[in-house]
Amino acid sequence: MMLRYSKDQSIWENPPKVDQYFTVQPHTILRQHLDYSHWYDRVKLTLKDIHNAQYVACMNPTAGSFTIDARLQGILFSSKHCCNTPAELVRLWVHETQRVYCDKLVNEYDIELFLKVQKDVIIKCFEDCDAAALMKHPLIFSHFATGIGEPKYMPVPDWSSLRKILNEALANYNELNAVMNLVLFEDAMTHVCRINRILEMPQGNALLIGVGGSGKQSLSKLASFISNLEVFQITLRKGYSHADLKGN
């Protein structure tokens, strides 16, 4: 008869070096639990159900994979005109954590969980600040929040002012390029601000993924125009090779 019993525990692992067979045996044990939610005792011939287990792991290289923390990099965009009070600085931090982490999430459950954790951190670590006020929409910081011209990383006061600025930018773009008929609803304006933030970063880059006709290219062109960047698009043709790609 195979018995089952539960354990509540935290699991800490400092992975050993790869052995002579290029394997790490503890990883196999951990994967058994991650895949099947139990361990098998080969001596007692029983299954051990493991509940409420928390893994603490460091997935990055020891020296770190970034020369500067991505959250700090965004905060360094700000100036004395952007944050005059502690609450404004915390709101900027909230914005940057959402750009660095939340924007990479694709599951609605994960996004809601992130926002809940973020709110809990605000309540715990910033007791003097109102969490609801800090997370009030629109929660957007942009280099053109006060107008297109000299970039200043500032908070967007409201949707109407942002829409006015983007409509003016779109009109200027259409005078110099092929006309784009864009409907700037809230999600579209948010994406323009996100893309513009990436383009203003040193070595900033993004990958456009999605079905055709969703507006991702048009919004990227508008964001590039706001940043005074030239847009170049590869044109695929028959016989296009790696050499052509390197030349482009």
UniProtKB/TrEMBL annotation:
- Domain Dynein heavy chain AAA module D4, first and last residues per copy: 180-245
One Pfam family per UniProt: AAA_8
Q: GO molecular function of the protein, one example?
A: dynein intermediate chain binding
Where does it sit, as one GO cellular component term?
dynein complex
Q: Which domain of life is it from?
A: Eukaryota
BP terms from Gene Ontology: microtubule-based movement
Q: Which family does the entry's similarity section mention?
A: Belongs to the dynein heavy chain family.
PANTHER family annotated for this entry?
Answer: DYNEIN HEAVY CHAIN 1, AXONEMAL-LIKE PROTEIN, LOW QUALITY PROTEIN: DYNEIN BETA CHAIN, CILIARY-LIKE
What's the name of the protein? Answer: Dynein heavy chain AAA module D4 domain-containing protein
Per the UniProt record, the source organism is Octopus vulgaris (Common octopus)
